[in-house]
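Tutorial handout. Part one gives the primary structure; part two gives the three-dimensional structure as tokens.
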Amino acid sequence: MAAMISIEHIEEFTRQTLGCNCPTDAFDEITTTDFMIGLLSCQRILISDRLLLLVLKAPGDFALLPDYARLVRYGMEERDCNNLNRCRIVLIGDSDTRIAEEIKSSFALIASGDSNLHLHWVSEFQLSFESA
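Part two.
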């Protein structure tokens, strides 16, 4: 899987699209890797040992829903084990309304009471960056 967000656009995407208020120096250290959870291909972005982004395409198949729940748990565990401030799970693109509702419901159950775990659903258009 090619990275969904190139390293040179991570700060812009994180601030403008996700609404992150991390200090500027947090973006001095960014690492990005690709990995799999079940059948889901994900981009893992770590911003200065503070913020974990897990970026992947929105699901098009009910059969993948258990892998999304595993991804949420993975994000929580990595955040907690590494003393990170937040984990943001970013789904890119559209899904069937029923699938979207299932994901949101599952996320709400898993993340109940956890104010440092966020689900973002963004369009592919929001990954279009202007050249500087």
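Part three, for discussion. The chain has three helices and five strands. The CA atoms of residues 114 and 123 lie 25 Å apart.
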